[in-house]
Specification:
14 helices, 73% helix
């Protein structure tokens, strides 16, 4: 009986590691193919398989061509401006909404929270017809500020991150400040908001990655070439007669680099913010 249990345990252990290896391969192979293709010339790409090594890893012509032809500098500038405005607005709106929902008891409070949850379940693409009609009627199509307004829509995930974090902040902080003559705005901005740094970092990363990678709304609302974002710039090398994948892969690596560096720099704060928001003290 004991030998049978040991045999089953060994089988489950082997299956666990096999599944982990397969999952790792599924995640890493597309990345490896993208890296290899980015360094291949047009002739190499046409005459070799996707997993063949390029002749040189020091050939950066594809990166230069992708950056210049796709006008990626303009894409980075537009995306950077959108990120700054949208993230700033989302952090303040999300944290203030969470503050009101957590600290104040009023009729309909539970209904508001449930409506936020219901809104999170609705697919965004299902509402684009109505949103586009509104944007067109207001003259906000093909304007960068109109695109920002669309992305500033209430971020449900950030609200719930802030809600969980507020649960860990004692109400006595608010009460002491109010007894000393502080207003509700003062309590929020002077006392509570500085304590939300871990939650803010987590929200910035989640919302920032979403905005940085956003393609559908960018392609729908920003048609002018000068309004390209970094996600739509990559589609310069696609067309009805074929796609130039060596340039596309080079552009993908260029776009991945900034967000990867930021994540590696701030990953400890991000994980700390997630852990702090997940534990209710």
């Amino acid at each position: 009986m004991i030998k049978k249990k040991k045999g089953l345990s060994l089988i489950f252990e082997i299956l666990k590691y096999v599944s982990l290896v397969l999952a790792a391969l599924c995640a890493l192979i597309p990345v490896c193919v993208c890296v290899l293709t980015a360094f291949k010339t047009n002739e190499e790409y046409a005459s070799t398989s996707v997993l063949d090594l390029p002749q040189s890893f020091f050939n950066f012509d594809n990166f230069v061509t992708a950056f210049q032809k796709a006008n990626m500098l303009r894409g980075f500038l537009n995306t950077g401006l959108v990120l700054i405005v949208v993230l700033t607005a989302s952090i303040f709106m999300g944290s203030m909404l969470a503050y009101v929902l957590n600290r104040f008891k009023f009729p309909g409070r539970a209904l508001v929270q449930n409506l936020f949850m219901f809104a999170a379940l609705l697919p965004g693409i299902a509402m684009q017809v109505t949103i586009y009609q509104i944007m067109y009627s207001l003259g906000l199509v093909n304007h960068l500020y109109g695109y920002m307004i669309v992305l500033m829509g209430t971020d449900i995930i950030s609200i719930y991150i802030f809600l969980q974090f507020f649960e860990n902040l004692p109400v006595s902080l608010d009460e002491s400040a109010i007894m000393d003559g502080c207003t509700y705005f003062g309590v929020f901005f002077k006392i509570l908001f500085p304590l939300l740094k871990p939650a803010i970092m987590t929200s910035l990363l989640l919302k920032g990655v979403s905005v940085y990678n956003e393609y559908y709304a960018s392609n729908l609302y920003l048609q002018a070439p000068k309004l390209k974002t970094i996600s739509t710039a990559l589609y310069t090398f696609t067309g009805p007669y074929g796609n130039q994948y060596n340039y596309i892969c080079a552009g993908v690596l260029i776009t991945i680099a900034p967000i990867l560096i930021l994540f590696l720099v701030f990953q400890k704060r991000v994980y700390g913010g997630m852990a702090a928001g997940a534990v209710k003290g």
